Amino acid sequence: MSTTVMAATAADGSQQYSPTTRGRVISVLSPKGGVGKTTVATNLAVGLAKEEPGSTVLVDLDVQFGDVASALNLTPQHSLADTVQGSAGTDTMVLKTFLTQHETGLHVICGVDSPAAADGVTAEDVSRLLATLATEFRYVVVDTAPGLLEHTLAALDETTDPLFVTTMDVPGVRGLRKELQTLDDLGMFIGSRYIALNLTGQRSGMSIADVEATIGTGVDLQLPRSKATPTSVNLGVPLLQSGVRDPMTKKLHTLVDHYTGRRDRRLRGRHIGARR
Ligand SMILES: Nc1ncnc2c1ncn2[C@@H]1O[C@H](COP(=O)(O)OP(=O)(O)OP(=O)(O)O)[C@@H](O)[C@H]1O
Ligand SMILES: [Mg+2]
């Protein structure tokens, strides 16, 4: 469980947590590919890093075909494989030298160069890495590969806040229902999950009510199809970095506010003001 205890800021800008304090591990998940996980993960991470400098690390856990580096226009010197091998796997100070810095202040662990290079990364490596990062950062955002393969399951063991993304199509929505059911059967994450419906606004023959009825729970956020999104991905500049005015940008801010609690604070402030 995360805590809101303030942490000291280290020389490299990251925030040092005491061993008893853990940051939130927000894993972006979906049963299907191409639904917007990397788009959501990179924007959320950039938004959190801009909101609270030094607070956030983004981990590309799409172990074979991760594209976080491309989505952030980074040319990393080190990859996920480097962060779990040798002394980086056991020494937090060494691990921190393997993080790639993004211009927004976000720290990033980029994916490996080729699927073969992912062979050395085990599920235990993933659990240990995320557990360590959660002692160093307030927010650990994890981008995942589609489905519930071993690296994602290992990440789920450390996850405090699962963020599910789906599009409005029958295979995607049915896949999400099965994924949620599987996690429910395992007794995982009841109450703390968040569901984002991406690419809304296009005619798909499904309504939001249809989606909610199928998955058996409410949708927390609707992300509209937007022209600016593919452009931002191709340029490697997330919408929350460029700040381009777009309906998707607005909704991504809402997502960031959900995790920082900023929206709730604003609403409380308005409420108190109204009573005066
Ligand atoms: N709201 C949106 N509007 C328009 N295009 C979008 C939106 N969200 C995502 N896309 C586009 O959809 C494509 C897939 O997005 P993304 O790479 O984030 O999906 P993914 O779930 O990470 O895929 P994979 O499972 O292959 O990793 C990208 O080209 C992205 O620009
Ligand atoms: Mg992806």
Automatic annotation (TrEMBL):
InterPro entries the record matches: AAA_dom, P-loop_NTPase, ParA/MinD_ATPase
GO biological process per UniProt: negative regulation of cell division
Protein name: AAA domain-containing protein
Source organism of the structure: Promicromonospora soli
GO cellular component, one term: cytoplasmic side of plasma membrane
Top-level division of the source organism's lineage: Bacteria
A molecular function GO annotation: ATP binding
Domain named AAA: residues: 24-184
